[in-house]
TrEMBL record, chains A, B:
Protein name per its UniProtKB record: LLM class flavin-dependent oxidoreductase
PANTHER family according to UniProt: ALKANESULFONATE MONOOXYGENASE-RELATED, C2H2 FINGER DOMAIN TRANSCRIPTION FACTOR (EUROFUNG)-RELATED
Family: Belongs to the NtaA/SnaA/DszA monooxygenase family.
GO molecular function: monooxygenase activity; oxidoreductase activity, acting on paired donors, with incorporation or reduction of molecular oxygen
InterPro entries (alphabetical): Diverse_substr_monoxygenases, Luciferase-like_dom, Luciferase-like_sf, NTA_MOA
């Protein structure tokens, strides 16, 4: 095994792929979001590529696709609920981590702690939870509310939510269960700890009716980049997925977040920063460009306008000439900074409406890279060795083809350079990521603020 | 295929089995509740036996085991969360239904509709939902409450919950998704129906972000036997699990519930009544009796007293001589009728405290039967042909051994008599149970109150 520090990889797998027109691509599975055989193949391909984890995004509503009615019926709108899908995938994979987004806003800590603990036991320690808050009106309206919860309140709730969930995971010590048929003793009463949490947002007694997860806690992931988000991550996250456009931006984010860890007594290594990368791969640069162009041409203008209209604050652009300039926009209530970013970009580069939506249709804020396997490996190496990233969340443009390309062409190149594993180091996701296994906060050994590191078993 | 009417079978599978001391039995898996290989084997065994479905009970807390601290540490207290477990089992089975309890009291309809729809897609139409309300204080305390919700309110909430869930399942018509790569149209806008439910307990806009379930709706199961429970079942349930001691009681329940169906425009066949049966099987009657005795001897007195104490209203019996009579009991707040039932039984049969708990330790109110395969088949046939049951929910005393016995010894006897299938009739749980596939309430065909019956495809 190489002693060189190696990067970590997530495979971010929406049903048909990340590009706005992915489902229309000839190598994409149009019904991928609800096709288990497709997901089974994806997860097994990612495992063949030695990815650390599969990652699934989620939301508790059909996402809006901008103003107007035309865009929605031209986009993928239905998909598996992630915890059920990951549970099924646990049976057809052996090594790869199984991670998904679940919101803290419209869930209860007891349900969430239970489901992730259950997945962790089903998979032998491969579960991971991407903690988010829900910030859209369409989600609020599915949960007895007219509008979404205010930002600060959402984050306060999220922070307490994690406290409760980790207490529930610690209800039982790792060796609480004796199951001694002879004496009839099922568990050691001294190793049961009833959380009895009473806080601002939650009152949860416990204990959990699932044993402590195999990993102690499933790996905790976050993606917030607001101040509240970064602070919550510095306290509780072990992986951050983030969108960064340039090495300089990535370095700034990396330094910022890592420096926040010390105030919580955490080492820089205990949090892995993984920017999203949208790779379009060709055997030659020209082939890659042609592939990207093919995808761009599949974008229906209604869908492009819907995406752009949504990102500039819900403004309907369908009455403006698509090959003309972006009009002056009214003030928006939400997403001011994103509106300004896009307006500035359009003015600076003199883009038409169509050119503007094409420029964001691939990776939507994540780093896009179109080139040969060597060129893409160069980019990943550059960011990794220069303090911009601990690894990457790979966002294939279309699926399954885009993941096949990455595993067949880019992974071997990263391995040749010694930048990526050729075999899994450990049994659990936590071990593969090189993260410490949390000590039970209620056990007698838990006095020290340091976490006990469980070495990867190789 | 036989044209004789045949009975339906559920396999009710708690981790180690149903008997109070199951986990201590030499043929029981003591860690069964959290052992996926064990559950995989159980589900495959039940499928080999052509069972209609696997059934999992559930609660959102560690169950109380009566007053005092001694009983809890001697009983199984942890197990998989059922939806994650069933999703994993969907991958290792092909025909058998996958059904589980989820409470309407501490859940949200959007989450529940999504998860069961997702499981139904993962399994190709094999999901079933056992609708319950949560009635214990230990559950309330895990969800920000001091005490459980009042009975009538729970049932009002449950009724509205089902309304919302079925509306969400009907968000998309069966053929809504065109996924036409050429035209770029993903779904037919005329076949999307936004529920926009606003009621007493829930305000849920929708649509669901999962396509309509393969079965239209997953099969809806209930187990309530109160007046509220029976009325809710008559309106919404397709299967009822029930506890009946004698043929006469079973017939009375059967007639009562079936007669309630007509006022909701439903046919008697659209609801299957399946009492629980706890079978202890021996090749001879003596072998069966010895097997049962072996289980009874494994009951730790603390656990027996805990069970009995809980069932008579939370009264601590540990200070009374275990081989003496049941003392006079104080009035209880809850479960008055159960307290009276047990007190009467003890007086009538002159039972000691130990004898009383032994009498309920096996099936806890369900019908217990100890005998040869022929004797057990006789019982099932008697209840089935004489209007006491449409089928049975089989509760093996210990697992895996008790299920193996039933599949190897009783199923062939039922098949010889023409009472049970030798091959699955349909592709989905609904088809195997002979239940109609619900028409989408929002589609143009849905004007008639009659449900369209989709024939089993054989």
């Amino acid at each position: 095994m190489s002693t060189k520090k190696q990067l970590k990889l997530g495979a971010f797998l929406p049903g048909s792929g990340h590009h706005l027109a992915a489902w229309r691509h000839p190598n994409a599975q149009a019904d991928g979001g609800l096709n288990f055989q497709h997901y089974k193949r994806l997860a097994q391909t990612a495992e063949r590529g030695k990815f650390d984890m599969v990652f699934l995004a989620d939301g508790v509503a059909v996402r809006e696709r901008g103003p107007g009615k035309e865009a929605l019926s031209r986009t993928t709108v239905v998909h598996f609920e992630p915890l059920t899908l990951l549970s099924a995938l646990s049976v057809v994979t052996e090594h790869i981590g199984l991670t998904a987004t679940v919101s803290t806003t419209y869930n209860e800590p007891y349900h969430l702690a239970r489901k992730f603990a259950s997945l962790d036991h089903l998979s032998g320690g491969r579960a991971g939870w991407n903690l988010v808050t829900s910030a859209t009106e369409v989600e609020a309206k599915n949960f007895n509310r007219d509008r979404h919860m205010e930002h600060t309140l959402r984050y306060e709730r999220a922070k307490e939510f994690v406290d409760v969930v980790t207490k529930l995971w610690d209800s039982w010590e790792d060796d609480a269960f004796l199951r001694d048929k002879e004496s009839g003793i099922y568990f050691d009463r001294d190793k049961l700890h009833i959380p009895d949490h009473k806080g601002e947002h939650f009152s949860v007694k416990g204990p959990l009716n699932v044993a402590r997860p195999v990993q102690g806690y499933p790996v905790i992931i976050q993606a917030g980049s607001s101040e509240d988000g970064k602070n919550l991550a510095a306290q509780t996250a072990e992986v951050i997925f983030t969108a960064q456009q340039t090495l300089e931006e990535a370095q700034a984010f990396y330094t910022d977040v890592k420096s926040r860890l010390t105030q919580y007594g955490r080492s820089p290594d205990s949090l892995k920063i993984m920017p999203g990368i949208f790779p379009v791969i060709g055997k030659t640069e020209q082939e890659a460009k042609d592939k990207f162009e093919q995808l761009q041409e599949l974008i229906d203008p209604h869908v492009g306008l819907g995406l752009l209209g949504g990102m500039i604050g819900g403004f309907d652009l369908s009455n403006y000439p698509i090959d003309g300039p972006l009009p002056e926009l009214p003030e928006t209530n939400g997403g001011k900074s994103r509106q300004k970013l896009l307006t500035d970009l359009a003015r600076r580069e003199n883009l038409t409406i169509r050119q503007l939506y094409l420029s964001i249709a691939g990776a939507r804020g994540h780093r896009q890279t179109v080139g040969t396997p060597e060129q893409i490996a160069d980019l990943l190496e550059d960011w990794f060795v220069n303090g911009g990233a601990d690894g990457f969340n790979i966002m294939p443009p279309y699926l399954p083809g885009g993941l096949d390309d990455f595993v067949n062409l880019v992974i071997p190149e990263l391995q040749r350079r010694g930048l990526f594993r050729t075999e899994y180091e450990g049994q659990t996701l936590r071990e593969n990521l090189g993260l410490p296994r949390p000590v039970n906060q209620f056990s007698s050994r838990a006095g020290s603020p340091e976490l006990v590191t469980v070495g990867a078993s190789t």
